[in-house]
Amino acid sequence: MTENTNTPPRRGIPLRTQIVIWILLIGLLAIIAIELNRSQRGTVQPGEAIRDFTLPLYSGYEYEGQNEIRLSDLRGKVVFINFWASWCKPCEQEAPELVKAWEYYKPGGQVVFLGVDYVDTEPAARIYMKKFKITYPNGPDLGTRLAQLFRIKGVPETYFIDQNGALQYVQIGPFTSLQQIQSIIEPMLKK
Amino acid sequence: MFAEIGYGILAITFVIALYSVGAAIYGDRKKSSAIVESARRAMLLTWPLISLSAGTLIYLLITNHFEVSFVYEVTSRSMPTYLKVTAWWGGQAGSLVFWSWLMSAFASLVTLRKWDRDREFLPWVIVITSITTAFFLGLVIFYANPFTRFWQSLDGKIVTSMFAPLNAIAFFPQDGRGLNPLLRHPGMIIHPPLLYLGFVSFVIPYAFAMAALITGRTDDRWIRLTRRWTLWAWLFLSLGLVVGGRWAYDVLGWGGYWGWDPVEIAAFMPWLTGTAFLHSVMIQEKRGLLKHWNMILIILTYALVLFGTFLTRSGVLSSVHAFAQSAIGPAFFVFIGATFITSIALVIYRWPELRSETEMKSMLSREALFLLNNLLFMSILVVSFWGVIFPLISELTTGQKITVGPPFYERATGPLFAGLMFLMGIAPLSAWGNSTIFTLGRALWKSAVAALLIAVFLFFTATKNILALVGFFLIAFVLLVTLVEFWRTARARQKTQNENFFAALLNLIGRNRRRHGGYIIHLSMMLMAIGILGIEVFQVQTQGTIAVGQSLSLSGYSIQFKSLASWDDTPKGVNYTRAVVDIYKDGTFLGQLAPRKDYYFDSQQNMTIPGVRSTLKDDVYVLLVDWQPASANGATFKVFVNPLVNWLWIGTIVFLFGILIAAWPEREADYALAHSKNKAYEPSSAD
Amino acid sequence: MRRPAGLSGVYFEDRFNYDSLRDVLRQVMAGAENTTEHGMWSHEMKNQLRVMLYTLTIALILAALWVVKASAQNPTPTDDEVNRIAHQLYCPVCENTPLDFCPTEACRQWRDLIRQQLSQGWTEDQIKQYFAEQYGARVLAEPPRTGLNWLVYILPPVIILAGAFLLFRMLRAWTKPPAASSAAGSAKEAAQDDYVARLEEELKKRK
Known about the structure:
- The complex is a heterotrimer of chains A (191), B (687) and C (207).
- With 191 residues, chain A is an alpha/beta fold.
- Helices cover 38% and strands 18% of the residues of chain A.
- Chain A contains 5 helices and 7 strands.
- Chain A has helices spanning 15-40, 89-105, 122-131, 145-150, 178-190, and strands at 54-56, 68-70, 78-84, 111-117, 138-140, 157-161, 167-172.
- Chain A has a 5-stranded mixed sheet with strand order 5-4-3-6-7, covered by helices on one side.
- Chain B is α+β, with helices and mostly antiparallel strands and 687 residues long.
- Among the domains of chain B are: 1-179, no CATH class; 408-535 and 654-663, no CATH class; 538-646, no CATH class.
- Chain B is 60% helix and 13% strand.
- In chain B, helix 11 (291-314) packs antiparallel against helix 12.
- By secondary structure, chain C is an all-alpha fold.
- Chain C folds into 2 domains: 1-72, no CATH class; 74-169, Cytochrome C biogenesis protein (Helicase, Ruva Protein, domain 3, Orthogonal Bundle), CATH 1.10.8.640.
- Helix content of chain C is 62%, strand content 0%.
- Chain C has 8 helices and no strands.
- The radius of gyration of chain C is 31 Å and the shape is elongated.
- At the B-C interface, helix 13, helix 14, helix 16, strand 4 and strand 13 of B face helix 3, helix 6, helix 7 and helix 8 of C.
């Protein structure tokens, strides 16, 4: 309260300005809230819908001769989606198990293995795949689109999608044995 | 046992802080000074209690109680004791305790002063500070508890919790993971506390501003009461930023001190509004203008302090500086939202009462120039804020992550900083109330011409770079104007007082500490600007792999590889790899440098320590990037030549000097100067 | 779909492998033919490309032999050339870290990639574009100027100009106060030379 008697008549902030201020504030808070929610959410969880995607494949690692693979074309099969990178040490740890699992399921034709190479260079990826004798379809995650779709938190991570295209199981970190992979896939095949 | 005690004390303190909030509000309602006094005493209790709890935490840290998860995460047996103490703020949970501890210390300090004249503010200052303290304590108690312990259940699983789960026994790890080596540097030991000090002390002016809004005593009393606080807060924040830069220069190994990282910007934004506030409060004090604006600025500063802390700690922003994923996000968000909304609602409610008392007379008056200064600071804030927020918006709308990096900020803020420098040059010579182009021009033209001559001289001798020339012109201009101003006023005083020149100068500074401290700060900013301009415009670098005896050369320097050795320091848990290089300039031997790479076994991290030869002219900054262990004859070095960067640190020392002059408690109030019609003078200030 | 026509780690002994070199050469050829089909290359350019590829092949074989024989030394693109580009790119896995000083293994691979691309004659823009396509726009130091991203460049100047305009209007309003305002008290101040005025005040204070 000013003691000054010469003050002009008291005027508040015009309503319109007030509304603008509040909208801006609420907008800012909303953005932060959504972003916070996003950062608190982990990876996609079983039960969440998986948007369809296509993944370009490295030459030599095609799927049935095609250099691109689309999730919705794989209905009726169990899909095993493994995110990895050549610079990732734990990935090397699980790579032999993945290859064993692929060799085990390949003849049956009921399971599709798909390696998604997360931010990696192709030369390094090829050396890696050669080193571990990986032969199942593999492709680069261009622009990290898939990684964002699955909201991966790191590599390796593996996502199991069932015959109806529903996410069934998420494995964070490396697999330690063939049995571990089988114990996840077998129940899905029985359905 | 100690863990439970520490936690218990925090829980009790939390309750006491909440009581203090409630009692203060109730006491104010009932107009009962006894109840308010009870709230004040409750508030005063919090600091000793938190100190006690922090003491137990420090005890656990230095005595290797690795069964406590926080101790396990930030210390290891090989760390020296002083580092174990500083590990207190080396992790999320501990640093929150540190925050609360500082917060309650400041709150206690401010409630200890005599309140006779400002009784009506007291309850509300208690409310704001206690809410903040309680909030941080709440975060510690419910979301980021440093006292949780490891437990092993029957099936061998290790869990962390405060109290023993069913059928579980305590688990004692052999050794801790150790503090991140980057945080073991002296710069990093004092950088966070300085920043926190700055952040926390801005809560006090905010609390007073809120008290003024709530009680309706919206004259400039709250500003006078908190002026000194604001200066100290600003000092700590500024020093925190500079020390952080120095730390980056010394250990991050990218040859620079500032990378426009979102987290750096988060700490820089409150500095911008705080600096704007320091300038604009002077207008309110001297001319009774801008009451709205000052209120908005202090609220903004506090909001940005909270916002920055939130962004870095909640996991919303990820960055080299950010704390890992954490659970405090939602609670913090609610607190921030509530703070923003209440503050804005209060300002809107009191808006009509915050009218200006006088009118502005000239576009060139000092107050008008201060307003321009505020506009420029706000513009830099807008650029910074938008650069930090936009990636979030982009990710939301397009799902695309993007980076807003240094080129964006440099381009956008460069001209704004130049504008600020120009204002620094002309504002000291403009007068409160009125100035004309003519009076200003008469005062300035000589300095401007001299600065121009310096720029022309540099053009012919040193550089043709237009950015640098404009920069150096402005620097020279500000330095000259300010120094001439000192000289003129001291001379005038010398004549009238028959003192010798230096006595006159000292007395002059002593008479109006804030103004002359401010000028010294301006000078220091210009010295810093020399360093910034030097490294931004003239930095050169090279990298190469050379064998022993071979050299890399860069802008006249030659770096010759002499030897390389690698050894373990087992007690410290570090492996050192140290290269020795000779530095020559145009064939003359200048000395040896020893860039290192330290590998810390406990945290499995590398730290790159540059070898730096620092002179006033330039720094030679050598990094050991890589080496071939088998052959031991080749190593990769990265060499930077950073011209003038030393002036940045020299400027910092001058800055410290200037702000101590301005902020040191003094007996005599200095604001009576030019304070036109404002009532009887009240020598009240919060120190 | 453009494929990275990458080379295997030719410059690193431990990585070197003739099989992969053959693969790579095949890929380079395949890549070139692919682009031809898309009509991006004129015949002349195609020929030039052939010549380039053959030269490159020979150069690579020589380089490979040289690498196998002696330990690695600076190959054609110097570290400085690599760093100059790496500095403008950001590490896709570690946040806000320019590629040139990022110490991780992944970043080392990316720097190698830049080196290879440079040795293949890629321009700076091509390399940046390749990185953006592969790893998303976040590897660029600034958002690409498309679509919504324009906001990042436009909004701050707009707000700043609006602020300047507001301030100017406020100042105008203030400097032309209604005659009623009692400016008498301070009018005498204004009349004097302000420097003298301030000095006098300074002296007054001294008592």
